[in-house]
């Protein structure tokens, strides 16, 4: 059974930073692309970033230059470093396993971790 468990969310002031973590199990992590997605209050799920098995990555325009995705295959963990946070980044952040051929459709996702950006 695929399990994805996020951690690291919290309340941060605008301009601040947070690092999210996602511990994965139940599948061969090193062979899998991994994504982060987020859902703001009253809005649909928004794809944020993807990291491929070779370590290359891609980002939504809204976070490009501020967020960095990374992975540690030895720990079966994917990270999202978020810098220069803005109030519009407030959302529940989910770690997700993308469907084959997609980066914004998912086979599985975790319960999410809340990120609130507010002064």
Can you characterise this structure?
The protein has about 120 residues and is mainly beta. The protein has no helices and eleven strands. A hairpin with a 5-residue loop joins β4 and β5. The protein is globular and about 40 Å long. Helices cover about 0% and strands about 50% of the residues.
What's the gyration radius in Å? 13 Å
Helix content: under 10%
Structural class: mainly beta
DSSP E strands, number: 11
The overall pLDDT, averaged over residues, is: 97
The description of the largest β-sheet is: 7 strands, mixed
Number of H- or I-type helical stretches: 0
Uncertain stretches of 5 or more adjacent residues? none
Quaternary structure annotation: single chain
Q: Approximately how much beta-strand content do the residues carry?
A: over 45%
Global geometry? globular
Distance between the termini: 40 Å
Run of helices and strands = EEEEEEEEEEE
């Amino acid at each position: 059974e695929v399990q994805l468990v996020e951690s690291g969310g919290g309340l941060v002031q605008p301009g601040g930073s947070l690092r999210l973590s996602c511990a994965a199990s139940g599948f061969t992590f090193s062979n899998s692309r991994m994504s982060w997605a987020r859902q703001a209050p009253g809005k649909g799920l928004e794809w944020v970033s993807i990291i491929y098995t070779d370590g290359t990555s891609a980002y939504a325009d809204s976070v490009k230059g501020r967020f960095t995705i990374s992975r540690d295959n030895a720990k079966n963990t994917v990270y999202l470093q978020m810098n220069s946070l803005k109030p519009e980044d407030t959302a529940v952040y989910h770690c997700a396993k993308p469907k084959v051929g997609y980066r914004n459709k998912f086979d599985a996702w975790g319960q999410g971790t809340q990120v609130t950006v507010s002064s």
